[in-house]
């Protein structure tokens, strides 16, 4: 059984903005009217690549009550491209995520399609008395058209946009189905949820985002401009800042958790 969710009727189509670094043969159009080659934002992952992000979240009781209180202490997470694996018949990157804080911590695994870089499956652990319970969610795309995906966890933002080669202008709409359990294990009668999601890629001005990204990446904003990606579902919105050449967004926020990329460790650097 599939439960379908759709966007509210009458949502206006937004006009896409372009990256400031694009070079135009003629006079450049005014800011806000440039298109973006989204393919330039696609991460070029290699087996052994690692990167570290830092997250800060609002406590659950604060989110629901709308009370302004101090955020949680920063938590650091290490992402690592560990191997290539198949999910059903699709070749995928297996990206393992572990918390760098002391003590017993849950682990999360992402399977990301090598061809489209769409999220195909995720596995995480939730706390239960005496330890953790492992849960999985997999994703299917209508007519084989890949889609951005919003993950079910908010404390560790692993939402993935879709970067297709060619010019991206304005708001694009996609659909995907989220199923409980690993890919290929859905039985007749199992619950699935069909979502409609909007993605918009817009130009981000360096002076507007400099305070959001980590210091090491803020220094390169002038020669490596940042592009803003907005993902919107009927129940959630995510804002991300991507910089060409980086393996993960340099900044993201889902309304309850903010995440900043703080270090990148390419596989070739580790071997030196």
Poorly predicted regions = 6-33
**Overall residue-averaged pLDDT value:** 81
User: What's the SSE pattern?
Assistant: EEEHEEEEEEEEHHEEEEH
Rg estimate, integer Å: 19 Å
Give the helix tally. 4
Count of spatially separate domains? 1
The count of strands amounts to: 15
Question: What is the CA–CA distance across the termini?
Answer: 52 Å
- The side-by-side strand order for the widest beta sheet comes to 3-4-5-6-7-8-10-11-12-13-14-15
Class based on secondary structure composition and strand pairing: mainly beta
Overall morphology: globular
Residue share in β-strands: 35-45%
Largest sheet: 12 strands, antiparallel, barrel
The helix fraction, in percent, is under 10%
Structural overview:
It is built from 4 helices and 15 strands. The chain has one domain (2-270). With 272 residues, the chain is mostly beta strands. The strands form 2 sheets. The protein has a 12-stranded antiparallel β-barrel. It has a two-stranded antiparallel ribbon with strand order 2-9. Residues 6-33 have low confidence and may be disordered.
Q: Summarize this, please?
A:
The chain has helices at 60-65, 206-209, 215-218, 267-270, and strands at 2-4, 36-37, 50-57, 75-87, 90-99, 107-113, 119-128, 131-141, 167-168, 171-180, 192-203, 227-232, 237-242, 251-253, 257-265.
